[in-house]
C-alpha cells in the first residue's frame, strides 16, 4: 500500500511507499520509473514498460493504476495487470452501457453506512454510485483490454483464425458531480434528477420514458498499451514538476483534489477502509474565500455545515488537519503566478527533449538580429520544449535563452545565471525581447521589481535551478565513473606488475646452453701456438 499518491495535471503519477521507494508513472501509463535507496546510500533508478511488469512489482503497479484510473482523463488497462477472474470475453465490441429506469431504480445496501444511491446496468457489469451529499460520483464499467484472433466453429476446412474475441475488464472511476466528462454528463444528470424526485416524494415519481437515449452512455476508449512515441518526454524527469501541477494528493486517510478551471476549487474527501463509500466531504468553490462546505455523512444522514478557517469546531483533529491543509493549498494557489497545466503526452505533438531537433513553431515567424546573435544550436547543453509554454535552452557557456509561445524571448548571461544558481533569491539582470513589437527590455531587478515579467522570470529561475541540479548529478556521476575507471586501471597495472615480477622470479638461466660453438682455423692455430710455447717452457 502506497503511503502517498500524487497525480499531476498531465495524469502522471508519483507514488511513495513506506520503505522509501518511489514509482513515477508516465501520463500515458505505458512506462514507469522505480527509484530505490536514499541520497546517503545511493539511489538506484530503473525504467520499465508497464506491460512487462515483473511479479515483484505487480501489486504496486496495480494499486497505482487503480488510483490513476479513478481520476485520469483516459483509463489504462492491460490484461497482465487485471485479475483473470474479473475479465470476461465477448464476440462483439461493447460501445455503450444501457440502463432502464423502470427496473434499475437506485438501491441502497443494508451494509452501506452512508446511504449511497446505486444503479446497476442491464448487463450487470456496470455500476454507478452517487453519495448522499450528491457531490461525488463513482462509476464502474467494462473496458476492452485486448482481443484474441480465433477460429470460427463453422470454418472446418479453414485452419486460419478469422474471428476476434474481445476481452473486457472492469475499471472504476471517480468524478465530481459538478465536473463530469462529456460521455457521462447526461446520464448522471438524469440520475440526480431521479434522486431529487425520490427525496421529495418516496411514494410516487415520474420517469420520462421518451428520453430512453439518455439512459445510456458510451464507453471511453482505453489508452494503447504500446510504447508512446514521446517516451522520453513523459515528465519522468520529476524534478521538473511544479507544485502548481498537482491535481490529486492521496494519503492513507484523506484524498485532496485541486481544480484549476473556473471556478477554482479544492476538495477533500474521506472514504472508508475499502475505499467504497464516501464518509466526509469538504469543498471550497471560491479560492479567495476562507469558508468551506463540510458534508458530514453519519448515521445514514448527510449534514451540511459551513466552516471558516477562523472558527473551526473544537475536539475534532481530523477536521482541523484537513482545513489547515486546504488553507495552505489555497494560499499557495493564490500566491502562484504560473500554472503549467501540461497536456498529457498522447495529446501533444512535435515534442522532443534534449539534444534533438525541436519543431518550434515560433521559428517559423522569422528571427530578429538579436536572436541570431544568441541562438547557437551547436553549443546547446540542454534543451526542452513544453506545449503552449515555450522552448527552453541552456548553452555550454552557461547562458540561457527561453522562447515563450507568446513571442517573448528571455536571455540571461552566464554571470547572471551563475548568480541565480548560487542564490535564486537575490536580484539578477536579464533581457526580454518582444518579437511582435520588435522591442527589447532590460530587467535589472528580477526579484524585487519584476513588474509584468514576473512569470517569465520565475520560469527562468526554475530552468536555471533544474539544469544546475542536473549538472551536479551528472558531474557526480561522471566523477564516480572516473574514480571507478582509475581504480580499475590501478588494479590492472598492479596485477600486471605482479605477473611480471612472478615471471622474472621463476625464470632461471640454464647452466648449459644448447648452442654449439665452432672454432675457426685461426683459433686452432693460436691454441696450438700457446700449447707449444707452454710445453717448451716446461721442458727447459
From TrEMBL:
Pfam families, per database record: C5orf34-like_N, C5orf34_C
Organism: Adineta steineri
Residues of the C5orf34-like C-terminal domain: 380-466
Stated name of the protein: DUF4524 domain-containing protein
C5orf34-like N-terminal domain mapped to chain residues: 6-69
InterPro entries, alphabetized: C5orf34-like (IPR053901), C5orf34-like_C (IPR027865), C5orf34-like_N (IPR027830)
Amino acid at each position: 500500500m502506497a503511503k502517498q499518491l500524487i497525480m499531476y495535471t498531465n495524469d502522471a503519477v508519483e507514488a511513495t511507499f513506506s520503505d522509501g521507494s518511489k514509482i513515477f508513472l508516465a501520463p500515458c501509463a505505458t512506462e514507469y520509473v522505480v527509484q530505490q535507496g536514499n541520497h546517503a546510500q545511493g539511489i538506484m533508478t530503473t525504467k520499465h514498460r508497464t506491460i512487462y511488469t515483473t511479479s515483484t512489482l505487480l501489486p504496486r503497479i496495480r494499486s497505482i493504476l487503480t488510483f490513476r484510473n479513478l481520476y485520469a482523463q483516459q483509463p489504462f488497462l492491460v490484461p497482465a495487470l487485471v485479475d483473470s477472474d474479473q475479465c470476461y470475453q465477448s464476440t462483439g465490441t461493447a460501445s455503450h452501457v444501457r440502463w432502464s429506469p423502470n427496473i434499475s431504480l437506485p438501491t441502497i445496501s443494508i451494509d452501506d453506512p452512508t446511504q449511497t444511491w446505486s444503479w446497476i446496468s442491464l448487463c450487470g457489469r456496470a455500476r454507478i454510485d452517487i453519495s448522499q451529499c450528491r457531490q461525488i460520483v463513482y462509476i464502474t464499467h467494462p473496458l476492452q483490454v485486448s482481443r484474441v484472433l480465433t477460429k470460427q466453429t463453422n470454418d472446418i476446412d479453414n485452419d486460419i483464425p478469422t474471428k476476434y474475441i474481445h476481452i473486457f475488464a472492469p475499471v472504476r472511476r471517480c468524478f465530481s458531480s459538478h465536473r463530469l466528462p462529456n460521455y457521462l454528463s447526461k446520464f448522471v444528470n438524469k440520475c440526480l434528477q431521479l434522486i431529487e424526485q425520490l427525496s421529495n416524494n418516496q411514494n410516487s415519481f415520474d420517469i420520462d420514458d421518451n428520453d430512453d437515449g439518455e439512459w445510456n452512455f458510451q464507453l471511453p476508449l482505453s489508452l494503447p498499451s504500446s510504447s508512446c512515441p514521446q517516451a522520453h518526454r513523459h515528465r519522468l524527469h520529476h524534478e521538473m514538476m511544479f507544485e502548481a501541477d498537482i491535481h490529486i494528493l492521496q494519503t492513507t486517510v484523506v484524498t485532496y483534489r485541486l481544480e484549476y478551471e473556473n471556478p477554482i476549487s479544492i476538495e477533500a474527501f474521506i472514504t472508508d477502509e475499502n475505499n467504497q463509500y464516501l464518509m466526509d466531504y469538504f469543498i471550497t468553490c471560491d479560492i479567495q474565500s476562507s469558508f468551506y462546505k463540510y458534508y458530514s455523512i453519519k448515521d445514514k444522514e448527510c449534514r451540511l455545515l459551513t466552516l471558516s478557517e477562523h472558527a473551526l469546531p473544537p475536539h475534532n483533529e481530523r477536521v482541523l488537519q484537513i482545513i489547515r491543509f486546504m488553507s495552505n493549498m489555497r494560499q499557495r494557489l493564490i500566491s502562484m503566478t504560473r500554472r503549467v497545466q501540461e497536456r498529457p503526452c498522447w495529446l501533444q505533438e512535435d515534442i522532443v527533449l534534449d539534444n534533438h531537433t525541436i519543431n518550434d513553431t515560433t521559428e517559423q515567424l522569422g528571427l530578429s538580429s538579436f536572436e541570431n546573435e544568441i541562438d547557437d544550436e551547436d553549443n546547446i547543453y540542454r534543451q526542452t520544449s513544453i506545449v503552449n509554454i515555450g522552448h527552453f535552452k541552456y548553452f555550454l557557456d552557461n547562458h540561457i535563452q527561453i522562447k515563450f509561445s507568446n513571442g517573448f524571448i528571455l536571455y540571461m548571461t552566464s554571470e547572471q545565471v551563475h548568480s541565480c544558481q548560487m542564490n535564486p533569491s537575490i536580484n539578477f539582470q536579464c533581457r526580454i525581447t518582444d518579437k511582435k513589437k520588435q522591442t527589447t527590455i532590460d530587467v535589472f531587478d528580477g526579484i524585487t521589481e519584476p513588474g509584468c515579467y514576473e512569470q517569465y522570470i520565475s520560469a527562468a529561475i526554475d530552468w536555471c535551478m533544474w539544469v544546475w541540479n542536473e549538472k551536479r548529478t551528472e558531474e557526480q556521476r561522471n566523477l564516480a565513473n572516473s574514480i571507478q575507471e582509475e581504480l580499475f586501471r590501478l588494479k590492472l597495472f598492479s596485477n600486471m606488475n605482479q605477473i611480471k615480477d612472478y615471471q622474472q622470479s621463476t625464470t632461471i638461466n640454464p647452466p648449459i646452453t644448447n648452442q654449439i660453438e665452432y672454432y675457426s682455423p685461426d683459433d686452432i692455430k693460436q691454441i696450438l701456438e700457446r700449447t707449444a710455447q707452454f710445453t717448451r717452457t716446461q721442458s727447459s
